[in-house]
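Weekly structure sync - notes
Attendees: PM, LS, DV (DV joined late)
Agenda: review two folding runs queued last week.

Item 1: First target. Sequence and C-alpha cells pasted below for the record.
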Amino acid sequence: MVNGKKVVMVMPAYNAASTLKKTLDELPADVVDEILLVDDCSRDDTVSQAESLGIKTVVHTCNTGYGGNQKTCYRTALEMGADVVVMVHPDYQYTPLIISAMVSPIANGVFDCMLGSRILGTGARKGGMPLYKYISNRALTFFQNLLVGYHLSEYHTGYRAFSRELLENIPFEDNSDDFVFDNQMLCQIIYSGYDIGEVTCPTRYMDDSSSISFARSVKYGLGVLRCSCETLGYRLGWVKSDFLKNVPKKGQAN
C-alpha cells in the first residue's frame, strides 16, 4: 500500500508470453498489492505464463481490442477494491521501476491521474522510438493541446495510473474498443476537471514489444484528431458526443 491506499497493477495483454516475466522482474515489491492480467485472446501461452507466476488472470474468449481490454482491466480492478490503479503493458516497453512515482501523487491526493511520458527528457528517441512516430506524436500532441485546452507533453503513452474516484465517475465504458480509447479517456478526464500529472518515463522499442502497423497508426492519428475536435465542439455546444455526453464534472455523482 501507499499512504494506506490499495494499489492494483493491471496488465492488458496480447501475445506477451516472451516479455511478461521480464516486465514483472522490474516490479518493486513494496508498492503493488495485487496484479491483474487481462488476456485478449492471445495466440501464445501468455495465460499459462501468468498463471505460473501466480497472477490473477482474466481471459477474453474473443479479441475485444485494446480499449475493450482496458475496460475489463479497470472494471475488475475496482471489484478487487483498488484505491489506485496503474496500467503497465506486459510487453516490456515501459519499466515498472517508476511505479512509485506514478502511484504516490495519486495516493497522496496531489493528482487524480498520472501519465508516464516518453517525451519529457530523452526517453523516446533514446529508447528507439521510430522517427516517424516521434514526429507524429509531437504534431498530434500540439494540436490536441490547442483543441482540448490542456497542456500535456504527450497524450499517447500507455503508462497510466488513476484514482478510484476517477474510474468510478468517468464513463470509460462509453469509449471505443480500439486504440483511440486512450485519447477518449483523457478527453473525458480533462472535460470532467480531474487533475493530470506526468513523470518522465524511459521506454524500449524491441522486436518483441507490441507495435501497430503504419496503416493502423494513420487510422489512430485520424481518430485522435476527431476525438480532440469533438471535445472542443462539445465544450462549445456545437456538436453532440457519445463518449462525452455522460461525463460528470469532478465532485458530482455519475
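Item 2: Second target, run right after the first with the same settings.
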Amino acid sequence: MRCLLDEKRTRSSSIHENLREQIISGLREYGSRLPSAPQLCKSYGVGMRAVRTALKALKEEGLIETGERRRAVVVYRDSLMEQSADVQSILQRKSSVLAVYQTMELIMPDILTFCAQFSGIIELEHYDSTMKWTMYHRDSLRRWRVPSAFFHDILVSSGNPLLASLYTTLEMYGEAPFLTACQRSMQLNQYKFERQSVSYILDALKAGKPQDVRDSLTSHYRYTTPVWCRKH
C-alpha cells in the first residue's frame, strides 16, 4: 500500500513540476487555459486523481485559478517580460547560456524526431497556430512561444513527461524568453528565418521522413542560438 501511495505522489509531482515549468517559463501565458483534466490524463498517462492533485498544488502556489466544470486559467504573470531585464547579469553568464543552447542543438533534434513517431501532427494542440505563424508576419516579443509550444506538444505525445520536462527546463536555463526579446532590434532577419525553418520542419513531419525531420530541426537549433553567444 505504501509503495502504491508513493507512486501516486510521484506521478502527481511529475505533472505538477512539468506544468509549473511551463507556466513559469511563459510557455503557458497569463490568461491562457490549461488543457482539460481528461486531456491532461491522456497526455501524461495517469488517472484523474494525480491530475487533480497537481492542479490543486498549482492553485495553492497562485499559478492558476480553477472553477467548477471549467479549465484551469493561468494567473501567473511573467515578470521577466514585463520589467526591464538585467542585461549585464545575462551577459556575465553567456558561457553557461551558450552551453545550454549547444546542448539543445545536440540532443533535441533526435529526441523530437523520435517523439514525432508517436503523434498525429495535425492533431496536436498548437499545430494550427504554428501553421498560421509560419504564414503571416506577426512579430512579437513572445514569438518564441509559438514553435516552442508545438515542440512541447510533440514531446508530450510520446507519453513520457520526463522529455517534456527536460525541454522546458533547458529553455528556462537558456533564458529563452528574455533572449528572444532582447535580440529583437539586433536580428531583423532572424524572425523570417525562424518562420521558414519551422515551416520546413512542419513539411518534413507531415511527409513522415525521420531523416528530413532531424535535418530540419538541427538547422533550426543551429541558427536560433543567440547571436551574441555565437559572436563573442
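Discussion on item 2: The beta strands are 64-67, 70-74.
Action: LS to circulate a short write-up before next sync.
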